[in-house]
Amino acid sequence: MNAKEFLEKAQLNQRIPTSTLIVSIEKDVEKLALSYAKGILCENKQPWGCKECYSCKIFYENHPDFIWIGKENSIKIDDIREISNFANLKPNYSPNKVCLITNAQNMLKEASNALLKTLEEPPFYLKFIITADSLSNIIPTIVSRSIVLELFERKTSKHPLCEKLISKRFYETIPQIDNIKDIKEKEELIDCLVEKLEQHMLKIGFNKDIEKAIKSLNTTKRALSRGIRLSLWISAILSPIIDGQF
Questions:
Q1: What would the pLDDT profile of 28-38 be if each residue is shown by its tens digit?
Q2: Domain count for the chain
Q3: What would you measure as the largest C-alpha separation in the chain, in angstroms?
Q4: pTM for the whole thing?
């Protein structure tokens, strides 16, 4: 299952992630993001929109449940305030509201910090679609709160314990994590686990438990500098999903 199929399955099952971050250098990513937004708002719940309901017909005409930020060169804090005001109003035609943020790599730091506040505790009906040409200029806390779909081949992270942890050998492998002393190697293990979980979710469709595990792993990576015991964190994060998924 590729990224587009994952988005279509999310729409079919009405299991839309709170925040979807689509990474691509192609201009067509905007078209994909707009079609995805249209499908989320479709009153007939058709992936990519049915073209017949009122919501679909007015989608490109100042739809009250849709806001698009990032058409200009930079995204400023005033744009994020506009999102906050938009978020506070309940939906008109759909169970959801959609905020599309394109060119998120151009988001100013103060705007990123302001957006994070909304991402942390969004209204249940608000869905974010974010596009960027790379993850390097997106603050890690925004990335960690999003399902990341990369529309290109990325350099795969590898670690010898990774495959064992995402398998029935999970419990016997956990103690071996304590043998890793180097922080960079710990980061590589976490990156590999995140990639494996993302790949699994591309196969099965959106899963809230796996989404939660991915976010928790990203949080764990930021906490490594505090000298945490990684084996305990990974055990707590992955044990709820290993038996049911792998």
A1: 899 999 999 99
A2: 2
A3: 59
A4: 0.70
